[in-house]
Amino acid sequence: MSEAQSVIEFRNVTKRFGDVAAVLDNNLSVRAGEFLSILGPSGCGKTTSLRMMAGFEQPTSGEVFLRGQNVTGVPAYRRPVNMVFQHYALFPHLSVADNVSYGLRQRSPKPSRVEIGKAVDEALAMVRLEGYGKRRSYELSGGQQQRVALARALINRPAVLLLDEPLAALDAKLRHDMQIELQNLQRDVGITFLLVTHDQEEALSMSDRVCVMRDGRIEQTGSPRDLYDRPINRYVADFVGKTNFFAGPSRGEILSVRPEMIEIAASVKQLPEGLSARVPVKVLNRIFLGEHTEYRVASDKLGEFMVMAPRKSERLTGVYDIGDMIAAGWRADAERILPEN
Question: How far is CA 239 from the centre of its chain?
């Protein structure tokens, strides 16, 4: 990808804090107008990467480019980016309108009162908070506060909006609703969004591409479907969704089969035709999850593994109880041979 096509670029970026390497020799190119998520567990280097993009941290080595310009060493206030923090960082003593306009009021020369008021109204409309300008932040719900933080960042029309786990403080239903709103907002405004999260569902549901990190390094970057269907190793397969691992054909390899790709039936004979694997299993656990049931089963040959049965299939096969002897199998194209690392 050329510099003209990328809005953010890491070139061999490393960040050390004393003897600790938080980010190790990473290369990443973020395309203009895309929604990219950096996904990984705590301590993998994802937030440090975000802070280097924002200018709050500087690389120990390597270079950071924004819109093709080398901004390594350039402070945050001189970069065309804005950041939405996990806890929003709103000013409780200011009104919603004053929170949103804060960045504009720090500019030199300062825009006129009319220009600021118009920009605030447009920003609040973007996040569906028209008429909330006079309220205080503490009078708002968690979802509304999150929208105010977004409006405050978007009012400056940054080249990139950086989001540091902005949905972590919300409850499950509101988080799901805000995932949809964020995705729609990004499409509407056309600004590059870069999200940091440890929640794989969040990353997969919102992003054009996902960058998976481990121990300071980028393991794999690709579309959500690519990462789910074609992970490059066990770590990515295990972190992106649920999967079962079995002994592979060669040393250092494993066989990965997603639980939703496994068929179950009352007996081996009742399994569908065309399956490459057919084994009798015992039901160890059953967890009802609404749209599907999750079974933990055990085979003398394969050990324990997970099966996800959709409600639609249970209408035909029935629901199995703990202790039942049933059968499980899958097609050859459900298997993926992966290296351990």
Answer: 11
At 278-292, the pLDDT tens digits run 999 999 999 998 889
What pTM, to 2 d.p., does this model score? Answer: 0.85
- For the chain, what's the residue count? 341
What pLDDT shows up at residue 251? 80
- Considering the four listed CATH numbers 2.40.50.100, 3.90.1310.10, 2.60.40.1840, 2.60.40.10, the one that applies to the domain covering 244-339 is 2.40.50.100
Task: Convert the pLDDT of each residue in 125-156 to its tens digit.
Answer: 888 889 899 999 888 888 888 889 888 888 88
Closest listed residue to residue 166, CA positions, set 190, 191, 145, 140: 145
Domain 3-236 class in CATH: alpha beta
Q: Is the pLDDT of residue 3 over 60?
A: no
DSSP-derived pairing of the beta strands 160-164 and 192-197: parallel
Determine the Cα–Cα distance for residues 29 and 52; give it in Å rounded to an integer. 14
| Residue 106 pLDDT greater than 90, yes or no | no
How far, in Å, are 29, 88, 164, 253 from residue 246 at the CA level? Answer: 35, 43, 36, 9
CA nearest to 277, candidates 337, 334, 338, 318: 334
Q: Where are the beta strands (DSSP E) in the chain?
A: 6-17, 20-31, 35-39, 61-66, 69-70, 81-84, 160-164, 192-197, 209-214, 217-222, 244-247, 253-257, 263-265, 277-288, 292-299, 303-310, 325-330, 335-339
The owner of tokens 């999750």 is 294
- If pLDDT is split at 50, 70 and 90, which confidence band does 9 have? very high
Task: Determine what percent of the chain is predicted with pLDDT higher than 90.
Answer: 62
Residue from 326, 302, 299, 303 nearest 314 by CA: 326
What letter would DSSP give residue 320? P
From-to residues of CATH 2.40.50.100 in the chain: 244-339
Count of alpha carbons within 13 angstroms of residue 242, beta-carbon side: 11
- What would the DSSP string read from start to end of 198-215? S-HHHHHHH-SEEEEEET
Rg from Cα positions in the chain: 24
